[in-house]
Design brief:
Elements (H helix, E strand, L loop, with lengths): L1 H7 L4 H13 L3 H8 L15 H8 L1
């Protein structure tokens, strides 16, 4: 399950970016909502977890 893989790797920002780039290549917008939780953006907190505001921005 990709969500679990992402959660397990969340301490490694570079691995996260690679993982999510691969996942998002062939994913629908509804599936992205789940993946965004562990995607690294500029508006993430120190643990690299997407904040609610950041997630809403990406989905808008």
């Amino acid at each position: 399950h990709k969500e679990l893989t992402c959660t397990r790797k969340r301490s490694n920002a570079e691995s996260l970016k690679k993982l999510n780039n691969e996942i998002m290549r062939d994913i629908t917008i509804t599936q992205k909502v789940t993946i965004y939780r562990c995607t690294v953006y500029k508006d993430t907190n120190k643990k690299g977890i997407v904040t609610r505001n950041s997630m809403e921005k990406q989905l808008t």
